[in-house]
Amino acid sequence: MIYSPKAMKQILEDNEFSFKKKFGQNFIIDENIINNIIKAADLDKDTLVIEIGPGAGSLTSKLAASAGFVLCYEIDKTLKEILSDNLKNYNNVEI
């Protein structure tokens, strides 16, 4: 997944996604923050990551590139297709 705030906005618009207040949704759009999270997590190919609320997968894709396996749980079923598409190049992710 090639990430940028503009690309994420376009993905969400293309999929007619709207944020749901009841889920308290907000997505990380700053790649510097994502990279800092990855660096602080000190991941390797033996690491299992459990991500709660992957949203559209911006952090998830970076986790998958660094960790052995990423297990995601997303309560908003309208994001399943977006996540599946954004993470299709990773065989170490389960949504």
**Spatial strand sequence of the major β-sheet:** 1-2-3
| Helicity range | 25-40%
Helices and strands, in order, run as HHEHEHE
Give the overall shape.
globular
The tally of strands reads 3
For the biggest sheet, the summary is:
3 strands, parallel
Mean pLDDT over the residues: 92
Question: Rg, please?
Answer: 13 Å
Strand content: 5-15%
Structural class call reads alpha/beta
Flag low-confidence runs: none
Report on the structure:
There is one protein chain. The protein is of the alpha/beta class and 95 residues long. 39% of the residues lie in helices and 13% in strands. The protein contains 4 helices and 3 strands. It has helices spanning 5-14, 31-41, 58-66, 80-86; strands at 48-52, 69-73, 93-94. It has a 3-stranded parallel beta sheet, covered by helices on one side. Helix 4 links the parallel strand 2 (69-73) and strand 3 (93-94). Helix 2 runs parallel beside helix 3 (58-66). The longest helix is centred in the middle third of the chain and has 11 residues, at 31-41.
